[in-house]
Amino acid sequence: MTKLDALAEAIGHEDAVKPPNHHDAYFRDVMTISANAASQLRAVLPKEIVTQLDWRTLRLQSGSFISDDLRSRYTDTLYSAKLDGRKAFIYLLIEHQSTIDKMMPLRMLQYVVDIWSRYAEEHPKATKLPAIIPLVVHNNNRKERWTKSTELTDLIDLDQETLEAFRDYLPHFRFLLDDVAAIDPETLRARDVRPAVLLMLMLQRSVLSAPGLGPWLTQLLGGLLGGLSPRELRALVTYLLRVGEMSTKDLEPIFEQLDPQAKEVFMTTAEQLRAEGAAKARAEECAENLIQVMTAKFGVVSQRTIAVVNEAGMSQLKAWFGRAMTANSVEDVFAH
């Protein structure tokens, strides 16, 4: 494997765990905090599951089970916990699209099987598989509720009579659904979850460019900002600045009015985002220049090479740019 091949493979691995958009990044920032996940799960899981789960054992697990071609649509989080004294998993998938995926029961079953397969590989002496509780959180700012089935058997192309006759020989699977998009705001605000979870659910079902957003946001944040940790507050500010159409200047007085300490985190985060944006712009310009130099010297540059260049940091780009001046091939540029 060449150095370029290794770099391309590393990028593919990073893409497999990196949230594809700001909505999903915000969801993961909030829901990868165990206390937040516990409050959301307690609010939506059936009571018989809530009472039997040992919440003290709730632990975040690594990895994602979503295929690359679907990462622009979904993000997922996996937790483990003791259920009735035995190890179990809770698998959360967030769906932000307003177009409902009618094949979701099949997709969720695939992810559940993937989790079992990984467990079996990691525990070769195991004789049984852990229970997995699958939960889809559906949310969008168009308030379009979930309209498709959560049952796998509803996807089977058989008439009802034949389906009943063959039911024992077909896989039985159903996922739990938290249809946030269908819940009215007052009911959602009354949900017994931690402030960071409530803010995330409310913001992701709202249009953050609507007229009068400032007063609405002030009312929503009132009483909740004080319950956020610095990490949660940074995630909130990042989401508002990246997704909403309110500028730093618009948002600053809201945070100052509601919580002076929150304003400090807000200003620090806003400055970090500005610096990141400027650094990204410089790196993009350097990457573009490097690709132009390689194209002029070596001819057509592959898409794989372009992907590697576009993902690199400034220091790496500068090193490659220097080598490109004397290299005899594209491979020589990335040889060290």
What is the topological layout?
Blueprint: H1 3-17, H2 22-31, H3 34-44, H4 47-52, E1 53-61, E2 74-83, E3 86-95, H5 104-122, E4 131-138, H6 160-166, E5 176-179, H7 185-189, H8 195-204, H9 213-221, H10 230-243, H11 248-258, H12 260-298, H13 303-311, H14 314-324, H15 330-333
Parallel strand pairs: 3-4, 4-5
Antiparallel strand pairs: 1-2, 2-3
GO molecular function, one term: double-stranded DNA endonuclease activity
Pfam family, one: Transposase_31
InterPro entries: Rpn/YhgA-like_nuclease, RpnA, Transposase_31
Task: Describe what you observe in this structure.
The chain is α/β, with parallel strands linked by helices. It has 2 domains: 188 residues, no CATH class; 123 residues, no CATH class. The chain is built from 15 helices and 5 strands. It has a 5-stranded mixed beta sheet with strand order 1-2-3-4-5, with helices on both faces. The radius of gyration is 24 Å and the shape is globular. This is Rpn family recombination-promoting nuclease/putative transposase.
> Radius of gyration, Cα only, in angstroms?
24 Å
Q: How much of the residues is beta strand, in percent?
A: 5-15%
Which regions have little confidence, pLDDT < 50, spanning 5+ residues? 11-18
* Spatial ordering of strands, largest sheet: 1-2-3-4-5
How confident overall, as mean pLDDT?
Answer: 87
For the largest beta-sheet, the strand count, sense and barrel status come to: 5 strands, mixed
